[in-house]
């Protein structure tokens, strides 16, 4: 997969504020079941302290579905956001 082309992603709908794992609120959020699954897995990696930019391929491989282009863009954007906004315990 090509992740370098994910620089120009426009904003999506607001992230649900009831998510207790968020530290801050991104200007985007999951808009479908695939994106919600991606956010949950990324957050699991973040909670375990295993999240950095090098795990994107691993994250993609553990998802229970084949990612479409929009899913890939969301994964990259959410990983970047989560690294900048770690989960507060």
Number of strands: 0
How far apart, in Å, are the first and last alpha carbons?
A: 33 Å
Radius of gyration: 12 Å
Secondary-structure element pattern, one letter each: HHH
Strand content: under 5%
Sheet having the most strands: none
| Helix content range | 40-55%
> What would the principal axes of the Cα set say about the shape?
globular
Low-confidence stretches: 1-22
Oligomer: single chain
Backbone structural class = mainly alpha
Number of helical runs?
3
User: pLDDT average, as an integer?
Assistant: 78
Model description:
Residues 1-22 have low confidence and may be disordered. The chain has 89 residues and is mainly α. Helices cover 43% and strands 0% of the residues. Helix 1 runs parallel beside helix 3.
Which secondary structure elements does this structure contain, and how are they paired or packed?
Layout: H1 33-47, H2 56-62, H3 69-84
Helix pairs in contact: 1-3
Task: Sum up the structure in keywords.
disordered N terminus; 3 helices; 89 residues; mainly alpha
How would you summarize this macromolecular structure in one to three sentences?
With 89 residues, this protein is mainly α.
């Amino acid at each position: 997969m090509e992740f370098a082309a994910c620089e120009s992603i426009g904003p999506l709908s607001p992230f649900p504020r009831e998510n207790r794992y968020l530290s801050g609120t991104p200007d985007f959020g999951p808009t479908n079941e695939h994106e919600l699954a991606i956010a949950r897995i990324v957050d699991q990696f973040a909670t375990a302290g295993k999240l950095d930019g090098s795990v994107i391929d691993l994250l993609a491989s553990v998802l229970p579905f084949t990612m479409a282009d929009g899913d890939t863009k969301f994964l990259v954007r959410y990983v970047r956001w989560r690294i900048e906004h770690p989960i507060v315990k």
